[in-house]
Automatic annotation (TrEMBL):
<dbReference type="Pfam" id="PF00724">
    <property type="entry name" value="Oxidored_FMN"/>
</dbReference>
<dbReference type="GO" id="GO:0016628">
    <property type="term" value="F:oxidoreductase activity, acting on the CH-CH group of donors, NAD or NADP as acceptor"/>
</dbReference>
<dbReference type="GO" id="GO:0005829">
    <property type="term" value="C:cytosol"/>
</dbReference>
<feature type="domain" description="NADH:flavin oxidoreductase/NADH oxidase N-terminal">
    <location>
        <begin position="5"/>
        <end position="330"/>
    </location>
</feature>
<dbReference type="GO" id="GO:0010181">
    <property type="term" value="F:FMN binding"/>
</dbReference>
<feature type="region of interest" description="Disordered">
    <location>
        <begin position="335"/>
        <end position="355"/>
    </location>
</feature>
<keyword id="KW-0560">Oxidoreductase</keyword>
<dbReference type="InterPro" id="IPR045247">
    <property type="entry name" value="Oye-like"/>
</dbReference>
<comment type="similarity">
    <text>Belongs to the NADH:flavin oxidoreductase/NADH oxidase family.</text>
</comment>
<dbReference type="InterPro" id="IPR001155">
    <property type="entry name" value="OxRdtase_FMN_N"/>
</dbReference>
<dbReference type="InterPro" id="IPR013785">
    <property type="entry name" value="Aldolase_TIM"/>
</dbReference>
<protein>
    <submittedName>
        <fullName>Alkene reductase</fullName>
    </submittedName>
</protein>
Amino acid sequence: MTDLKLLTPLKTDTFEFKNRVFMAPMTRARTPDHVANDRTALYYSQRASAGLIISEGTQISEQAIGWTNTPGIHTSEQIEGWRKVTDAVHAAGGLIFAQLWHTGRASHPDFHDGALPVAPSAVPFESQAFTPEGPKPTVTPRAMTLEEIQSTIADYEAAARAAQAAGFDGVEVHGANGYLPAQFLEDGPNKRTDAYGGPIENRARFLLEATDAAIRVFGPSRVSVRLSPRIPYNDMGDSDLEGTYMFAVEALEARKVGILHFMEAAELPDGLKPLAPEARKRFSGVFIVNVGYDRETGEQAIASGLADAVTFGTLFISNPDLPERFRQNAALASSDPDSYYVGDEQGYTDYPPLT
Ligand SMILES: Cc1cc2nc3c(=O)[nH]c(=O)nc-3n(C[C@H](O)[C@H](O)[C@H](O)COP(=O)(O)O)c2cc1C
């Protein structure tokens, strides 16, 4: 027996999460035709004891793609593929959200017949794109027109509708890790002078319109938004991280968004102010923390009131029954980074549960 708070249920008006050990979204690059398949269904159903699974980043349109072999949610074939996954997870007693992904400038011309990826602004930056031919340096993107912004918001709504048709319990707007909504939010990548650039009220507009599109389909309580102020991945930067992100958090609170998925390392380097407590103060829905948590620090996050739930990433790759291992305080298997983004069953569906 255990009295771990991580394993206590979490009730909202909409959901009863059976525990607070949630599975973080993780790209596994195992769908060469961009369609989730039987193996995807097996992988997620093996992990259905999580209180909530958030799927790997799932592109909302052709233009959104920026990582090879990743699934989409914008064709009827893709909806059918994901239906196998949601059915398998539900049959195993789990809940699953689709993570809606647009890579923006982090994409590569190789995904677009040589055309430039799109972004708020044509700002040079340095990162790597995972193309079908392997990692390549990213390129300076093309600035989106106002019409393209509107059609991309429509793509978010269509993708949310597709996720609903595929049987997902909700969606997460991927506003983290330097992808398109974050590119609009932060003033490093966003140099626009129209309604989508300049002051934070304008820079937040894209993220909030994408969120509103998801809300129109699912209602606010089934929408999660993921943010990562302290993660500079994809060459991100902002002159006032705290001000920028607290504006976004307050705007999400005003919309009664159900879940805020806040990425910030459990241990920050000395001198760096943690923003998770600030966000937590401003948000009354389900507040999730992630990055580098384990059984002890995750428990502490719940016990101290910092968070309502914790997402675990790499630990869920190699420990499909992570909540049970936490309950038993059992030894944890370590994952193999070489198979994170390549391979078939190996490093994917072949990690055994406890016997
Ligand atoms: C293989 C792999 C793929 C990932 N793919 C995504 C993704 O698709 N979307 C996302 O928001 N984060 C992604 N992440 C980040 C994870 O969700 C998580 O934030 C990260 O693993 C840190 O959590 P952990 O310390 O519990 O592993 C990925 C991480 C890994 C290791």
